[in-house]
Amino acid sequence: MTRRAVALVSGHVQGVGYRWFVRGLAESAGLAGVARNLPDGRVEVALEGQDGAVTDALAVLDGPRAPGTVTAVEVRDEPPRGASAFTTE
Questions:
Q1: Nearest CA among 72, 56, 63, 57 for reference residue 26
Q2: Residue 37 belongs to a domain with what CATH number?
Q3: Could you tell me the pTM of the whole model?
């Protein structure tokens, strides 16, 4: 089953390579989506792919390997959009 989840990641997550960390995580899991900096200092991460792979990737967003300091991760599910690649903005 395909799942799309959008996570809003708070903390010191801009300017520390966080989006590139997420990109590597997503690509190694075969996920599509996007990671982008938001004007308020958060990073928005959209992950789309197999349900289990999305769940596993979400669990790592605030893990010890994540660069910077993550203070919160808010996740919401959305209908899949048919994304085929992962990008950073």
A1: 57
A2: 3.30.70.100
A3: 0.95
